[in-house]
Amino acid sequence: MVGNYINTIMKYLVSVNETGIEFFSDENTSILEQAEINGYSLKNGCRLGACRVCKLKLLTGNIEYIGSKKIGLTESELKENYFLPCCAIAKSNIVCELDGDGVTLSNTKEGGVICDVKRFLGITILRFNLSKKSKMSFIPGQYIGIEVPNGKCRYYSIANIPKNDGYIEIHVAKNKNGVFSNLVCEKIEINDVLWIYGPYGDFIAKNYDEVRDIVFVVTGTGFAPVKSLIESYNFYRRKIHLFWGGRKKSDYYFSHVIEKWKEMFPDFYFHMTLSNPDESDNWEGELGYVQNIFQSQIDLNDKIDVYMCGSPNMINDMTEILKKNYNLNENYIHCDVFYPNS
């Protein structure tokens, strides 16, 4: 009876080849969201069709993209029948295939108790503990979903290193119309409880065995996952560049950590730039966008592995620069796009 009832609601069967994953999906919900509703976490990134992290290969059946979304797939990927489940719906029963090392984990919902709140000008550092029985584990660079009062989720990168202590840190930038960011930056207190999903994402360390300079390019709180990556991996034998772009000096909210890294890593190079500093900032450093500063510091012939996290404009510009000017292979370009919730 239950199976028949579900069948009348969920119109099409979605099967992920060689994984045992099957779930029903309707025409009102993206395939990615429907997978999560059914307890599966497929590899994903921006969830808006831009980053291509979630791509699946369609083996049989038909899909359709929601609305007039601009799809970020390359021409070759489209020809090979790849699609983006974050903004696609099933139009028939479909069979698809994971791309590469696609992650499929149980989608858990757990309570996190706020244990520390640090508020800066426009930025809040939030730390919370999960239950001692928590099974949630993350890879440096991943993010979590947090349930907000309207029942939806907001997504934040994890900023700390993985330990068996159930501790998670996120960095929240205040958004004028942000449902969750305003709550965090103004009202949330120690011992409040948050409901957390995940972890998600594929913005993780790759090409670990190759001797290439590591380059991180971030804007704003895009610093959060990079903090987790730098503190989790042994980059001592590599040169590390961190480019951090902000509008005001207050966007540079974790200066003490940068100073610590300068002492820890013999070849750590930090580049900070502001695009629109206040007069009161008394800023004497670089001016302009971080992608422009990058070009002035990194030689065209350098062997680099680039991790970018932040605004879509920065990542779009940087991707074009890396491909056209540096002729960098896609295997060495990794991105995590921060889209404002509208």
UniProtKB/TrEMBL annotation:
> What UniProt keywords apply to this chain's record, in alphabetical order?
FAD, Flavoprotein, Iron, Oxidoreductase, Transport
Residue ranges of domain 2Fe-2S ferredoxin-type in the record: 10-111
UniProt-listed InterPro entries: 2Fe-2S_ferredoxin-like_sf (IPR036010), 2Fe-2S_ferredoxin-type (IPR001041), Beta-grasp_dom_sf (IPR012675), Cbr1-like_FAD-bd_dom (IPR008333), FAD-bd_FR_type (IPR017927), Flavoprot_Pyr_Nucl_cyt_Rdtase (IPR001709), FNR_nucleotide-bd (IPR039261), OxRdtase_FAD/NAD-bd (IPR001433)
Question: Per the database record, which ranges form the FAD-binding FR-type domain?
Answer: 71-206
Example of a GO MF term: iron-sulfur cluster binding
Q: Which PROSITE patterns match?
A: 2FE2S_FER_2, FAD_FR
Q: Which SUPFAM superfamilies does this UniProt record tie to the protein?
A: 2Fe-2S ferredoxin-like, Ferredoxin reductase-like, C-terminal NADP-linked domain, Riboflavin synthase domain-like
Q: Which domain of life is it from?
A: Bacteria
Q: Name one Pfam family in it.
A: Fer2
Q: Which CDD domains match?
A: fer2
Q: Which family does it belong to?
A: Belongs to the Fre/LuxG FAD/NAD(P) flavoprotein oxidoreductase family.
- Protein name listed in UniProt: NAD(P)H-flavin reductase
Q: Which organism is it from?
A: Xenorhabdus bovienii str. feltiae Moldova
